[in-house]
Hints:
By secondary structure, this protein is an all-alpha fold. It has helices at residues 42-51, 61-72, 74-85.
Amino acid sequence: MPRYDWVIAHAWSYFKHVSGPDENAENLPQTNAAAEGGVRGYSPVTWCAERLPASIRVISPEELVWRIRMKHDPAQTKRFMEQLAR
């Protein structure tokens, strides 16, 4: 059965890109992180997504909402999508 989960990115903290399975290796002390080559924003989010197993798909928030709506009320969602297409 599919699961629908989301995560919140800590986009204002600095991280460094490190290969391998140790997620904690990317953490940096924040005091001087920018000077140490730390990166923040979208890039660390993509690094996290790269570590996910193939069984997990990363989707947009819009697609997540669409999938949840289709699961709970497919008829109403299809009518809404048809109206948008007009």
